[in-house]
Amino acid sequence: MTSNSSQDTTDPTALVDDIIAELQTRFRTSVSNLKSAIAAYVHDRTLPPADAAATGLFDYPAIRLVTTGEQREGQKGHNLAFGRFERAGEFITTVTRPDLFADYLRDQLTLLARHYDVELSVTRTGQQIPFPYVLDASDGSDMGGVTPLELARHFPTTELADIGDELADGLFGQDPAASQPLALFDALRTDFSLARLRHYTGTAPEHFQRYILFTNYHRYVDEFVAWAGAQVGQGRYTALAGAAGLYVDQPGVNASALVADSA
Question: Largest alpha-carbon pair distance within the chain?
């Protein structure tokens, strides 16, 4: 576990930036470990290390926050609807794609560290990254005839029983003396949602913006693509992303034709 409790939290920016950097490093390492182990298995059926789970070889990183629940001097009386603690304790959540959620994590953790006396660190909980979340057809992964069922016998895989909305639904009961959840959705639940975005749209999650509009009218999609393609390079919009790896970042490109060709 990497502890940052000795840092000065009067200005939490550096502390939070260190935490996010550590999350990113650990996540990249776990993904690399899992991909390498799968590649070795595909190549010559080398099994992953027997102690992979015990040593956290494929683990999601986790944020650990400990607080007395007391507001910092000069911060008492703030009336925020979020970014507040109701009790003292240890709070933990696993994190996926810290590169994608860096801004969100920075905002939330900075708010907590600014208002409360906290200790922040990066640790692990034993929650492993399922292998389907690190395999992407677009990265050229060659499975050499190895089926997902075969991989599931040797590598962590998705278990729907471990993915739920208990926290958000208010159905999560726990001993107050035990570690409390720091977020409504852990890494497994978040990765499940990101995978569904990719599955239903064919578009990488990092290209999504804050709002999603669902429609089954092709003419709406056609009009949007034509309009969006014309906006590239003309102001605030930098690119148009679509299914099957479509990515238009140059002005003057016929986006409608590219979308039609990729269908």
Answer: 63
Helix axis angle, 255-262 to 218-231, nearest 10°: 130
Contacts of 141 by beta carbon, 8 Å cutoff, 6+ apart = 135
Residue 219, judged by CB atoms within 10 A of its CB (0-12, 13-18, 19+), counts as exposed
Confidence tier at 258 by pLDDT (50, 70, 90): confident
Residue of 261, 262, 249 lying closest to 203 (CA atoms)? 262
Tokens 């998705």 -> residue: 158
For residue 221, the tally of other CB atoms under 10 A from its CB is 15
Tokens 């003057």 belong to which residue? 252
Query: pLDDT of 122-149, one tens digit each?
Result: 999 999 999 999 987 555 467 878 999 9
Q: Cβ atoms within 10 A of the Cβ of 161, count?
A: 6
- The topology (CATH level 3) of 12-201 is amp nucleosidase, domain 1 (3.30.1730)
